[in-house]
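Re-running the complex after MR caught last week's input typo. The corrected sequence lines follow. Everything else is unchanged.
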Amino acid sequence: MGSFVASSSLTYCVAVLIFAVFCDGGTTSPFVRKIWPSVAMPFDSDVFALPLGYNAPQQVHITQGDHVGKAVIVSWVTPDEPGSNKVHYWSEKDHKKKKYSEDTVVTSYKYYNYTSGYIHHCTIKDLEPDTKYHYVVGSGHVRRQFWFVTPPEVGPDVPYTFGLIGDLGQTHDSNVTLTHYEQNPYNPKAVLYVGDLSYADDHPLHNSLRWDSWGRFVERSVAYQHWIWVSGNHEIDYCPEIGEYTPFKPYLHRYEVPYRESNSTSPLWYSIKRASAYIIVLSSYSAYAIYTPQYQWLKEELPKVNRSETPWLIVLMHTPMYNSYNYHYMEGESMRVVFEPWFVEHKVDVVIAGHVHAYERTERISNIAYNITNGLATPVRDPNAPVYITIGDGGNLEGIANNMTEPQPDYSAYREASFGHAIFDIKNRTHAYYAWNRNDDGTAAEADSLWFHNRYWYPDEEGENGNSRKRTINKMDQNCLIFQSWCP
Ligand SMILES: [Fe+2]
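Corrected-run output:
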């Protein structure tokens, strides 16, 4: 059985290699994944297990709590009564200086016939950079202890590894994706999560118990790592048929983000700095036309990015602006028309989206010349443009998107109908290594990869099809002579 799998993998790799070598345009992977039933794991699955004890804190999760990474928001839910609202925490460097944070907001909400537990959001401030902290939520016999590592001080050559996950849901495929992410050999430190969390709204009456089970499912990662949240369409939960008229009600109660720190007026769009990256989160399902709050915020936000402090400019959103699948085709077009010229002007390095339940990476292209009458409506190669990555392949219950537009557009560098996750591994101000793993290969094989060249500090083309690793590494050798902060 093992040798059969090995020879099958070898045959597949050779086939992909031949395909990649002899095709001049982008690559449509011939890989066909095993089709598993796309259903949510049952409530009695071990991944949803309740912590032991009356009113024990559950669904523990953390995210960045300020603009630069010196604060953390710790969130948890108590099911029966509010319980303790304190977080007890201490640095691994100094066990004796244990502190309590009481900067906690406790909230709850009703959604149709469901009443949430008590949702706690506690902001811990003034943390040391690059330091391991232990923390405890709950009290008495239901104390639960976790830990996290704060990001390093913000700076231009600070290495940092992000994980990229989208549209995860809570199926068996979701569990495989999360497990592979946890096993990723690059040891990513935080997740850029590009929207669509629980898929509760795919269940009858938007079954809110699925928000709770999702929170328990991902706790094993997000209680220990910061996940940076982006809202997707499955967070809207707008359902007039059952009297639910307030968009994003469950999501906004459960997932707190530091939006005020970046002068945003909404938790649906905001920014953070983390190590050498400046991360901008946008909302595909909030108004973004001229004069709207999100438009005005982004217009003022982009010029603030100091590439000498944070060279890597990363934009997250849910709906992709470039997508060559027949699912959600052109849904991101209206936002593209509004925001793409700014992305090119400000040399955004990469735009990461989800929504389409498959994988795709583009070349560096833009489509900003069109003015209704000139006919220039075809994307063109543009060294100032971002790479667009669609990674809505977490494995939710809606299944894989396997119907692609044909032929593959020139702008599409690689696309594949598989579930998976990726890492974005920043080495220094000029280079970052990006790799996508399909679930079917675990973490053993990188199905798609690219050495990113920073648009501000090293705006050379990455190579033919964006993936000429040999050529790129040669350039990196030259670059090492200049910056000497990291060498392959
Ligand atoms: Fe979506």
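None of the earlier attempt is carried over here. The radius of gyration is 22 Å. Residues 1-24, 464-488 have pLDDT under 50 and may be disordered.
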